[in-house]
Hints:
Layout: E1 2-7, H1 8-24, E2 28-32, H2 40-48, E3 53-56, H3 59-68, E4 73-76, H4 85-91, E5 94-97, H5 100-113, E6 117-122, H6 137-145, E7 150-156, H7 169-186, E8 192-197, H8 201-205, E9 215-218, H9 220-224, E10 226-227, E11 232-233, E12 242-255, E13 281-287, E14 299-301, E15 307-311, E16 316-321, E17 332-337, H10 339-347, E18 352-356
Parallel strand pairs: 1-18, 2-3, 2-9, 3-4, 4-5, 5-6, 6-7, 7-8, 8-9
Antiparallel strand pairs: 1-12, 10-11, 12-13, 12-17, 13-16, 14-17, 15-16
Amino acid sequence: MAYITLDTQKLKKNYDYLEKLLSKNGITWAVVSKLLCGNKTYLEEVIKLGIKQLCDSRVSNLKVIKSISDQVETVYIKPPPKHSIDEIVKYADISFNTERHTIELLSKEAKKQGKTHKIIIMIETGELREGVLQEEFLDFYDAVFKLPNIEVVGIGTNLTCMYGILPSHDKLVQLCLYEQLIEAKFNKEIEYVSGGASVTVPLIFQGLLPKGINHFRIGETFFLGTDVYNNVTFDQMENNAFQLHAEIIELTEKRMRPIGELGKNLLGETIIFEDSDLSETSNRALIDLGLLDIDEKHIKLKNKNLKIVGASSDMLVVDLGENKENYQVGSLLEFEMDYMGVLRIMNSKYIEKRIKSN
């Protein structure tokens, strides 16, 4: 069997640290919960911490959040697809938008449901993912302000997620200037200047975050304590709130090199082995975990003396060397994961999700 655990004490430590840091700097923030893939048990633990706003990119996950607490404000954080407009208005209090026609559909659906739907308009600042072009944003806001049942509550931008474009003081100042221009031209108050994400947190310490940035959306730093900008862990935070455990289902001393003509494996790769004595052996363990659940590049064994030497759809192969720790069939191996590792595991229905509280 294989299972993942969430250490609620470590997660609380991360939450308390971020809450203190951001509130001290006049910043409201939302947890980006898409890492949890809508798992109700884990979402309940997050909501218990006192989170007031949760962001997700799947409307089904927002539905789960609303089933836990209708007091939590939900945010749909990608441009809404047309076929999901009715559910987005129903389960998302706020949505991120970049297409005028989509907002028109949201307006019609919000009127139908007797609601006012809030939106944050995303501006393109260099990442070339979602965002209204800078030369078009004034006309865009002008048209959207006229729509019924729509309340524009923010302006935002996305950086780093696709091409790795890092946030900078100049880019974020530019976003603040756009907000000021909109308020002056249309005599409207914009509540959120949402320019902050996990990668933006270090700019607070560097004194490079413009005062106008007042809203952050944080996922990886909250869950994994990661300083995304510098690819390290914040000293004051926990990076292993999630732990993966997988069972040894076979343990045998075998040759270290396969025998026979080498073709392509299931990934279409031809593995090249270094020259060595074909009689050389080691203790090899098969693990009840495979590529269907995880990409081996995104996990590492907690025991540094062990090494992953192969993978198939449903099993990993681990070299135990001389097996000095005396692992047996049925023993559990522990793994640490990065963000994408946790995301893949959480998305696997075959991996049990457990809570660790101590």
